[in-house]
Amino acid sequence: MALICEVDSRAPADILVHEVSSRGVADILVCVVDARGVAANNDGLWCMVKSRGVASSLIHWVDSRSVADLLVCFVSHRGVSGWQKDHPLKGKL
């Protein structure tokens, strides 16, 4: 389940994330959803939560692609969300 909580610093983060504008360079295409249940068992559907306690992953946004663990491109349709290539974080968000 991709329940994502944004944190302000790198120290508590599980994953360093960088947003890219091109789908071709992204590791994953992400569609943000409002309902937790919708995000179940799909790394490409992120439900943003405020509580670290309920989050499945803590992320920190970074400005540099070179330090990022994950390159994300946001999409508006659930049907195109998902992994673009094999990745060590697949199934772990």
Short description:
This protein has 93 residues and is mainly β.
Written description of the protein model:
The chain is an all-beta fold and 93 residues long. The protein has one domain (3-83). The chain is built from no helices and seven strands. Strands 1-4-3-6-2-5 form a six-stranded parallel beta barrel. The radius of gyration is 12 Å and the shape is globular. The model has no long low-confidence stretch (mean pLDDT 95).
Order of helices and strands: EEEEEEE
Structural category: mainly beta
Shape: globular
Mean pLDDT: 95
Number of helices: 0
Beta-strand content estimate: 25-35%
Uncertain spans: none
Please give the alpha-carbon distance between the first and last residues. Answer: 7 Å
How many discrete structural domains? 1
Helix content range: under 10%
Total beta-strand segments = 7
Report the C-alpha radius of gyration, rounded. Answer: 12 Å
